[in-house]
């Protein structure tokens, strides 16, 4: 969901996990001139066609081929968990974005999937505090953003499995603790 805390959570996890890097879907938006406009004059940013998804997949695959050269600095580990001290050979890529699980070429790549949710009112409140370029036009949230979120969330629920749903109204600390603990468990499984 837009403004659910995806980027904040990803950045905090990166600081805590060994050999961790982030790829953000926001970095793959097409320029405004290439984004379609609907009959109401809304720029359709909340659809897959507004993004260079093939480029995103290439970036992820390139990282997977050679994660050690991705700029991850293993000396700056801020992790204090004793049983992770010998994970120099394990690299973690966090891919964060709002339309990741609806793009089929990506669905074969995930080890773990997390989906942040927010109720309508909280999402709208948070969105109203953000400044976008280009700026949201009046009615954009109700006319495009929220309906697209519901559409893609419904598709996701019909077609995807193994998703951990996270309540975006919980504190950043609670969300971080939940996801961090889950990732630590996954790392332990890799070492067994």
């Amino acid at each position: 969901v837009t403004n659910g805390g995806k980027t904040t959570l990803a950045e905090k996890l990166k600081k805590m996990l060994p050999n961790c890097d982030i790829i953000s879907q926001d970095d793959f938006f097409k320029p405004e001139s290439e984004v379609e406009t609907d009959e109401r004059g809304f720029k359709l940013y909340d659809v897959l066609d507004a993004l260079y998804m093939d480029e995103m997949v290439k970036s992820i695959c390139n990282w997977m081929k050679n994660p050690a050269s991705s700029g991850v600095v293993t000396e700056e580990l801020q992790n204090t968990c004793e049983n992770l001290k010998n994970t120099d050979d394990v690299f973690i890529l966090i891919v964060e974005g709002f339309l990741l699980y609806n793009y089929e070429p990506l669905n074969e790549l995930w080890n773990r999937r997390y989906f942040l949710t927010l109720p309508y009112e909280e999402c709208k409140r948070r969105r109203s505090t953000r400044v976008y370029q280009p700026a949201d036009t009046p009615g954009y949230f109700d006319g495009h953003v929220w309906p697209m979120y519901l559409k893609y969330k419904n598709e996701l629920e019909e077609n995807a499995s193994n998703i951990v749903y996270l309540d975006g109204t919980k504190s950043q600390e609670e969300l971080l603790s939940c996801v961090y603990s889950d990732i630590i468990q996954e790392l332990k499984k890799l070492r067994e």
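The mean pLDDT is 88. The two ends are 35 Å apart (CA to CA).
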